[in-house]
Specification:
Keywords: Cytoplasm, DNA damage, DNA repair, Methyltransferase, Transferase. The protein is α+β, with helices and mostly antiparallel strands. The chain has 2 domains: 58 residues, Double Stranded RNA Binding Domain; 87 residues, Arc Repressor Mutant, subunit A (Orthogonal Bundle), CATH 1.10.10. It contains 5 helices and 5 strands, in the order βββααβααβα. Strands 1-2-3 form a 3-stranded antiparallel beta sheet, with no helix packed on it. Strands 4-5 form a two-stranded parallel sheet. The radius of gyration is 15 Å and the shape is globular. 29% of the residues are buried.
Length: 163
């Protein structure tokens, strides 16, 4: 494992790679963030494509990430995280809708728990999942960051900056 930290509009992001593949993107004070000493040595050379794509995202010119990911979790968690990647930029779905899309319509709470343990925030867009009424419920990076990311995506679409 190796890691680096990059600046972003939502604060510092710690990028973690396992065998050269992105396995973590953690925000400051993120819930379920592993201990810093578990990330391995600092090695920024492993993260060139990740940094470029994050810069493009925050510039409003990238709406989808195209990176190899090492999603470490249970089969159910990985299924939820994969489904998150299908939520279009600037749109939201509820936990119940995501559960139904996974063929588990009664598993909204389990989807929420898996969503909260997403190890690759922003790139695996767990911020696009909201409560059944459309309200901003829990987010591992904090509700303020969730609101900031959703507002940013909506504004980018409104201004027509994204491609």
């Amino acid at each position: 494992m190796a890691h680096t930290t990059v600046d972003s509009p939502v604060g510092p992001l710690t990028l973690v790679a396992t065998d050269g593949v992105l396995s973590g993107l953690y925000m400051t004070d993120q819930r379920y963030r592993p201990a810093q000493d578990s990330f391995g040595p600092v090695d920024a050379s492993l993260f060139g494509d990740v940094v470029v794509q994050l810069e493009e995202y925050f510039a409003g010119t990238r709406t989808q990430f195209d990176l190899p990911l090492d999603l470490l979790g249970t089969p159910f968690q990985r299924a939820v995280w994969t489904a998150l990647c299908s939520i279009p930029y600037g749109e939201t779905v509820s936990y119940g809708e995501l559960a139904a899309a996974l063929g588990r319509p009664t598993a909204a709470r389990a989807v929420g728990m898996a969503n909260g343990r997403n190890p690759i925030g922003i790139i695996v867009p767990c911020h696009r999942v909201v409560g059944s009424s459309g309200g901003l419920t829990g987010y591992g990076g904090g509700i303020d960051r969730k609101r900031q990311l959703l507002d940013f995506e909506a504004q980018t679409l409104t201004l027509g900056l994204s491609t």
